[in-house]
Amino acid sequence: MNQEIFKAYDIRGIYPTDIDEDAVYKIGHAAVVELGARSLAVGRDARDSGPSLHTALINGITDAGCDVIDLDMITTPMLYFSSHALDVDGAIAVTASHNPGEYNGIKICRKNAQPVGSATGLNNIRDAVIAGNITHATRKGTITTYNIRPSYYEYFGKFATFGDKKFKIVIDCANTMGVLELPFYRKYFAENFDVVELYCDLTHAYEAHEANPLKTETLKELQERVISENADLGISYDGDADRIGFVDETGQIIPMDLTTGLIAKVLLEKNPGATILYDLRSSRAVKEIIEESGGIAHECRVGHAFIKEQMREENALFSGELSGHYYFQANKNGEVSTLAAFTLLNLMAQTGKKISELVQDLRRYAHSGEINSEVHDKDAIIASLKEKYSDGTLSELDGVKIDYPDWWFNVRPSNTEPVLRLNCEAKTSELMEQKRDELLAIIRS
Q1: What structural domains does the chain harbor?
Q2: Rounded-to-integer distance, Cα 279 and Cα 370, Å
Q3: pLDDT digits over 270-281, tens only?
Q4: Most buried of the four, 14, 45, 49, 63, by CB within 10 Å?
Q5: Residue 97 appears among annotated catalytic residues
C-alpha cells in the first residue's frame, strides 16, 4: 500500500498499485476500531475495481465484529443521508470522487455525516493499517442489503416547489454517479422537466470527460448543448455527485460562489436571520447578498471537514464552497448537489426570471478564479506577501487573506501538493488583473 493514499479528507490512489483489496480490507477493519462501530452502511461507485474493493471492505468490517448494511451503488450525498436515516454508527463508500477510472479510494463519515479526516481519525486508521494489528472478533458481523435510494428521493423531493412550471434542462453526468440523481428529474418530477442527457450511461462508467465541473473546460459541451437545445439551465455533476456546476440559458458558466449567494437568498426567505457560511475565496457579493436577505454571513475556511464542524458549532442553515460543494443542514450538514439544483429552479419558478437575470445581481466584482502555482517554499512566499501588503486587513483563517477597500486576495497552501492557490477580486477588471499579475510575480519569482 502506498501511504500517500491517505489525504486530508479521504483515501485515494491508483488501483491496484497504490490501493488494492488487501489494503481496503485492513482499512475497513481499522475503521471499525477507530469509530467504535457496531454497525456501518457501506456503498460504492461504478468503477471497474469497485465490486472487489467493496467486498474486501465489507469483509474487513465484519471480521472486526461490526454489522454491515450494504447499500451497493450510491452517490456520496446518499452516503451522508444513510448515516442519519439508518440506525448505524457511520457510513463508508468505495469511491475516488472525480478522479479517472483507474483510481479508487474510501470516504468515511461517522453518524450524522460527521466526516473522518486526517485530524479526526483518518491518520489513526492509516497508522493502524501500517502497523498491521488485525485480529478477528469472536463474533463476525452480519450483512444485510438495503436500497437507500427511494427514501433519499422522497426525503429531498419534498424541497422542490416548482408548481406547474416546466423547465428544459441539460444534465451532464460524465458517465459517473450523477446518473443515480437522475430519477429526481426523470421520475419524481417528470411533469416539470424536459431532460436532455449528456453522458448519463453507467454501462460505460468513467469513459467520458473528467467529471469535474470546477474545470471549466469540462463544461464546453454542456454549454454548447444548452444553447442548441434552447434550455433553461445546464447541470454538471462531479464523479461522486457531491459537487455540482451550472450553466445559464446563454451558455455562460455560473460561478460556484455566486450560486451560494442565490441559494442563500432562497433559504433566507423561509428562515430569516439564519446563519449562512461561505468559504473565504468567495466573492464579496456573497456576503452582501446574505446580509441583504436578512441572514448572518460568516466566513469559513476551505475543506468539507472544517466547514461541517463550523456549521455544527454555529447551527448554520447552509454553506457553499467555491469548488461547488453545497452543504445543507437538511442532510446533517452534508452535501446534497441536487438540492442545490432544486433551489435554483425553485427561484426561477417563483420569480419567473431566467437564471442569467438572477445571477446578474451578484456579478458585482471581477474575480480571478483560483490560480495554482507550484512553489518550493510556501511559508517563505506567504511571509513575503504579508510583509508587502502589511497595510491591508489581515486574516489567517486559511493561508493569508488581505483586504483593501477596492480589492482583496487570498493565498493558501494545498494540503496535498507543493502548490499555492491564489484568489483575487477587485471592483473593476482592470484593477483585478493588475493585482493578480502583481501577486503572481511575487509567488512565482
Answers
A1: 3-150 (3.40.120.10), 168-253 (3.40.120.10), 256-359 (3.40.120.10), 366-443 (3.30.310.50)
A2: 13
A3: 999 999 999 999
A4: 45
A5: yes
